[in-house]
Amino acid sequence: MRRFLLRRVLSLIPTMLVIVTIAFVLVRVAPGGPFDSEKAIPPEVKADLEKKYGLDQSIPVQYLSFLKNAIRGDLGISMKYQGRTVNEIIADGFPATLAVGSFALIWALLIGISAGVIGAVRQNTAWDYGAMGFAMLGISIPSFVLGPLLVLVFALTFFWFPPAGWGTWRHLVLPGVALGTVYAAYVARLTRGGLLEIVRQDFVRTARAKGLSERIVIWRHVLKGGLLPVVSFLGPMIAALFTGSVVVEKIFATPGTGSYFVDSALNRDLTLTMGMVVFYSAFLLLANLAVDIAYGFLDPRVRHE
User: Fold this and answer.
1) Which partner for 178 in 19, 147, 170, 224 could form a disulfide, CB atoms 3.0-4.6 Å apart?
2) d(CA 14, CA 66)
3) Can you tell me the distance from the alpha carbon of 174 to that of 152, in angstroms, rounded to the nearest whole number?
C-alpha cells in the first residue's frame, strides 16, 4: 500500500508542472493585456505598471519567478483588484464554493446511489423504471434551468428556502440541489449498472445459497464491488462540481470563487487567472488522489499493478 501511495503522490508533481506551464504560456500569448482598455493610458504609466508586475521581463524569466513564488505559496497581487492578493481573494471566495460543492456532492451520492440500488434490486419493475426515469430527467435538465425552477417553487411559492444570498445552511440547499442533481442522475445509472454486473457473480449466488437475507447480500457482498464505477466517476465529478459552479453561483448570488475566475479571464488579470489555475489544479489533483486511494481499498488488485 505504501508503494501505491508513493507512486500516486509522485505522479502529482509532473502533472501539476505540466498544467501550470501550459496555462502560463496560454495566458501570456493570448491577445490583449491587463492594462489595455478603451481609454488609452499614457505609455509611461503603462510601462510603470508592467514593471511593477514584472511584465517587462521575458516570458521565461516571468515563468521562473512565478513558479518560485507559487512553491512558497505566494500567488501574487491581483492586477484588477487593487491592493488585494490572489491568496486573499481565494480565501474569501473558496469557503462558499467548497460548501456548495460539498453539499452538491453529498446530494448526488445519496440520491444517485439510492436510486441505483433500487433500480438494480427491483430490476424491470415500476421501481426500476421510476428510478431510471428520474436519472434521465436529471441528465436532461441543466443546472441553469433547474436553478430558477427551484427558486420559483421552493423560494417564491412555498417560502421554504431563501432565493439567493449567503449566511446560513438554508442558503446551501437550492444551489447544492441545482448543482448536484445532474450528477446524481449519472451516479444512479452507474450504480445500477455496476450492481447488476456484480449480482450475477458466483460469490453472490453462493452467499444466497447459504441462506443470507437479500439485504445482507446487497450490503456486504454486492455494494462494495458494484460501487467501483461510481468511485471511478468521483474524480471527474468533483472537478465538474467545484469548477463548474459559476452559473449556479451567479443564479443564487453565492460569493464563491467562480465569478472571480471568470472575471479574471475577461479582465486579463494574469496573476489572478494563474493563481486560480494553480489553486484549483492542486485541489483537484488531491481530490483525485483521495479517489485513487479509495479505489485501492475497494479493489486490492489496483494496489499491486
Assistant:
1) 147
2) 17
3) 11
